[in-house]
Amino acid sequence: MIEGFRLGVYSRGATLWDGLDFAFGDGVAWLVAGPPSSGKTLLLSILRGERKPDAGDVLVSGESLYRGSAALALRWRASCGYVPEQAVVDGRLTVEDLFRRSALAGVGVRGRDRKDRADRLLGMVGLPDASGWRIAELSISERVRAFLAAELLRGPKVLFCDGVVAGAGVPCREMLWGLFRALAREGNTVILAERTIPERWALAAGDAETVGPFRVYRLPVPGKEGKEVKGEPG
Amino acid sequence: MSGQPSLWWIDWRLSRSRLVRETIGRFLYFCLLGFALYSLLLSGGGNRFLADRYAITAVLRAEVPAAEADGLARKVAALPPVRSAAYRDPEAAWKEFLRAYPGVESLRGAGGNPMPGYIEIRFHPDRLTGADIDLVASALRSVPLVEQILAGEEWLPRLLRAGRLASWSGWGVFGAFLAGFFLVGRLQERARVVALAGDFAFLAERGVSAGRLACARAAAAAVSGFLLSAAGTAVGGGALFLSLRNFPFLEAVVGPPSDLLLPRTIAGAVLFCCVAALLSAAASLLGWRAARSGR
After folding, report:
1. Which terminus of chain B has fewer Cβ atoms in its 10 Å neighbourhood, N or C?
2. Contact at 8 Å (CB) between A231 and A199?
3. CATH at residue B140
4. Which chain A residues have any C-beta within 8 angstroms of a chain B C-beta?
5. Rounded to an integer, what distance in angstroms lies between the CA atom of residue A19 and that of residue A28?
6. Do residues B66 and B172 share a domain?
7. Is the separation of the CB atoms in B232 and B30 below 8 Å?
8. Partner residue opposite B2 with nearest CB, options A73, A89, A107
9. CB-based contact, B194 to chain A, within 8 Å
10. Which of B1, B193, B203, B208 is the mutation pick for testing A, counting most A CBs within 10 A?
11. pLDDT (tens digit, 9 = 90+) per residue, A172-223?
12. Do residue A88 and residue B10 have CB atoms under 8 angstroms apart?
């Protein structure tokens, strides 16, 4: 469980938001929707332990991320995956390099195993045979999916995705819908930050909770809480 | 929450081609340094050259029997600073004199051989000091068989000072090259950290602390520095060995090839490898810090 208590952020000389409470349960796919410049990326970095909030605290499994030990924050970040909305990428970097780098941050992902898993993950996100491609030459959609696949290599317990659904584009929504729900079904937590939620996802998710400038959706997970969601919103 | 990922040889895993180039360069540099190190260790700067040239001559009295003179030479040779003490009888001394000054054979006609016998004493290169020379000279002066000691007291201090200067200069140049290795290594490390900044930032975002990264890099630099310097020193030592075998005249300045395997020479080489490891680690840490602070 990731909990944010009375979170507040002061940015550009003004209060961006203050007194926000969040509770993200384990094994669930969450979608936080908010307008541009509302602080979605900032919220994700606060929840990941990257940026201390100006007010409030974040608890992970009951332990404070910012008032507890530094080792706890490092362990928490090590257990997380993060797909940024925009990443400054070295022009020489290839998709394979992304996986190599991701494997370095993980434990026990080596050599042959890494290649096999990378091929499977790339195939899953619709980028088979892309391992030799340069990141700089990929489209935004391809880049987002490559980053997502590389993060999944380590099997993070919590996956933060910033603008992935929008970046991947409409044709990939169905794949992402299935992927995120599958991850959640396996006990992982997925937190997505998007400007808007796809209409059919919103229909499937039902009512959203409004927290400050954000609307927090809980995506339905098949086979969980005795509830099977019909249909495949793509 | 997952455990800690292994950061061992992180630079190698992130940037192989660059590291291979740097490693080859460092290895070649260590070969040169190893050659210079062994040359300095064996030659003692200029000491071996001086020790090869310098000798004390103990001129014996005319009536000293050859057996007693030989016995005295053996006793002198047993003194710690002495490398060799050889007795030359009056006949051998006369022949040497004639070789040096041909055409003076007539000097012997009237009163027989005018040359006395003498003992030529040479010093170990590392014991060629004023104190050790005084020790041997004063020991000989008290011997009744000895008539005169020729130790070059007038010019000896200048000679020893020149030897010390040559030694300091040699080690100074060596130290400067070692410092050059450190400075270039620091620049290389800094450039590598800058080139891999994206990878390190990625790892930091995923819970790898900067301190752990810096320590892992420094430890790997120390190990690779030690291994590279050991390999380079071995190759440099081998090159010196072959040089001494092929050009024997170098032995007078550097020393015999067998001295390469003396325990003190090996200890010097091991010490050098340890210093290289420490410098490599320090260059890694300082390069990391400089890159992170943008200097």
Report:
1. C
2. no
3. 3.30.70.3040
4. 48, 50, 70, 73-82, 88-90, 93, 100-102, 104-107, 154, 157
5. 24
6. no
7. yes
8. A107
9. no
10. B1
11. 888 999 999 999 999 999 999 999 999 889 898 888 899 989 999 998 887 6
12. no
CATH of the domain at A206: 3.40.50.300
B89 and B228 together in one domain: no
Nearest to A231, CA basis, from A186, A199, A188: A199
Closest-approach residue (CA) in chain B for A101: B199
DSSP helix/strand/coil, B17: helix
B203 touches A at CB < 8 Å: yes
In this complex, the residue of B1, B205, B208 whose CB is nearest that of residue A82 is: B205
Residue B221 has pLDDT above 80, yes or no: yes
| Interstrand relation of A189-194 and A29-33 (parallel, antiparallel or unpaired) | parallel
Alpha carbon B64 to its chain centroid, in Å, reads: 42
pLDDT > 70: what percent of chain A? 91
Instruction: Record the tokens describing residue A181, joined without a space.
Output: 């729900």
User: Which DSSP state fits A224?
Assistant: B
Q: Measured at the alpha carbon of residue A7, what is the angle toward residues A6 and A9, in degrees to the nearest 5? A: 140
- Round the CA-based radius of gyration of chain A to a whole number and report it: 17
Distances (CA, A) of A29 to A143, A180, A224: 22, 6, 12
Task: Give pLDDT tens digits for B190-201.
Answer: 999 998 888 888
ipTM of the complex: 0.77
Number of domains in chain A: 1
Q: Which domain holds residue B213?
A: 10-46+159-293
Which residue segment(s) compose the domain that A173 sits in? 2-219
Of B38 and A104, the one with more pLDDT: B38
Q: Which two tokens stand for residue B235?
A: 């190759």
Pairwise CB contact (< 8 Å): A100 & B13: yes
Which of B109, B140, B156 terminates a domain? The answer is B156
Size of interface A-B (CB pairs under 8 A): 65
**B83 and B106 both lie in a single domain:** yes
DSSP helix/strand/coil, A191:
strand
Instruction: Please count the CA atoms within 13 angstroms of the CA of B81 that sit on its side-chain side.
Output: 19
Contacts of A107 in chain B (CB under 8 A): 2-6
Tokens representing A134 are 């340069």
